[in-house]
Structure to design on (115 residues):
């Protein structure tokens, strides 16, 4: 019921910054929480950051202090500000929306951190 469109991925130098955006459309009233996950080659998908409808946030230990998740309710959009990027942050990043009984995923966007 919810469609998620991601933008903002690309190639960045170590120490650089990127901002990902995820715009939700459809049955947005049903969204309990949204988050960003990532999957690097040869690794399982992991939670990066999440934000509930009430604004509470959660971060993976590996990104605390560097990444910030936020939302703009008027635009139905969630953002992930990524600072001080490291090569180990290289992965496909996926936006997701938790509707309680249904988890919706964006198409994924590649983040490559390399010099």
């Amino acid at each position: 019921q919810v469609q998620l469109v991601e933008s903002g991925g690309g190639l960045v130098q170590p120490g650089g910054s990127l901002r990902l955006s995820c715009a939700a459309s459809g049955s947005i009233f049903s969204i309990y929480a949204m988050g960003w996950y990532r999957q690097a080659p040869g690794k399982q998908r992991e939670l990066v950051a999440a934000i509930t409808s009430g604004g509470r946030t959660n971060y993976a230990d590996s990104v605390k202090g560097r990444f910030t998740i936020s939302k703009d309710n008027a635009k139905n959009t969630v953002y992930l500000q990524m600072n001080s990027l490291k090569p180990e942050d290289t992965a496909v990043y996926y936006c997701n929306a938790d509707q309680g009984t249904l988890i919706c995923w964006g198409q994924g966007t590649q983040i490559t951190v390399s010099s």
